[in-house]
Write the C-alpha cells for this entry.
Amino acid sequence: MFRKFFKDYFSFTKSEKNGILILLALIILVIILRVAIPHFRKNRIQDFSEFQEEINEFEKSLADSHPVLSEKHLQGSGSRLFFFDPNTVSEADLEKLGLNPFVIQNILKYREHGGKFKNKTDLMKIYGLDTAVFKRIESYIQIVESEEMIMKEESPPEKESAESSPIPLNLSDSADLVKIKGLGPVLSGRIVKYRNLLGGYVRKEQLLEVYGLTAQRFNEIKEAVYIDTVNIIPIFLNKIDAQSLAGHPYLNTYQLRALIRYREMNGKFERIDEITENQLLPGETFEKIKPYLKIE
C-alpha cells in the first residue's frame, strides 16, 4: 500500500521529466559560467601601448605650461648645479641649472631693464621662481661686485649742493625727474603718468600713491621737488561727464555716476560741500579730490 503511494506521489510525466532535465542543465551552466568568467577576465590584459605616446605628449605639455618650477622637477630634469653669478650668467647656463624657461626669461628681462642682483635673496624677486628651487641653488650663487659697484662703495657719498634748487613737480617731464638722485627712468615715467591721471599733484604726499615708490624713496626725493598749484587741472562739478573723468584715480564709475545723477535731479552744484551733505562720496575720497573741485 505504502509502496504504491510513494510511487504515485514521486512519479513524473514525460514533460515534467524534460523540464527537470532542462532546469538541471541551466543550473550546471550557471555554475560553470560563474567559475569560468572571473578566471577569463582576470587573465585578460588591456594593451594601451598604442596610446602611450599620446599620454607622454600630454604629460609633457602639462609640465611645460606650468610657470613655477618645483624641486621635484629639478631632480628629474637632468640638471646639474655649478657656481654662477645671476648678473652675468648666460641663458644657456640657466637652462643647464634646470630653471624653467619662464623663469629664465624673467631673469633676462630683469637684467635688460637695468635690474641688478646685489645679494642672493634678490633672486627671489623673479616671478615664478619657486622657494624650493631657490633653496636648491642658493649655495651656488656667487655675486661678483662690478668695478662700478666697488668704486661706489669705496667713494664717500656725494653731498647735495646747497645751491641746487628743487624742480616743479607739475611741469617736469620724465627726463627732468630722472636727474633726481633716487629716481630711475621707470619711476620717473610712472610719476608723470600718474600726474596726468590726477590732473596734477596738489601735495607731495601723493607721490606715495605711485606704484613702486616706497616711503623711503619718497623721503629721499621730497626735498628735490615742489608743488606748483598754478598748473592743476580743475574738475568743474557742473561740467563733468562720464568720459572726461574716466580712469581718475580717486573716482570710480559708481561715484562718478552719483555726482552726475545728483546734478541732473537737483540742478547745478552751488557749493562743493553739497557732496558731503548728501553723502555722494566717502569722506576720505572727498578729502582727496576736494582740491581739484571747482564751481563755476
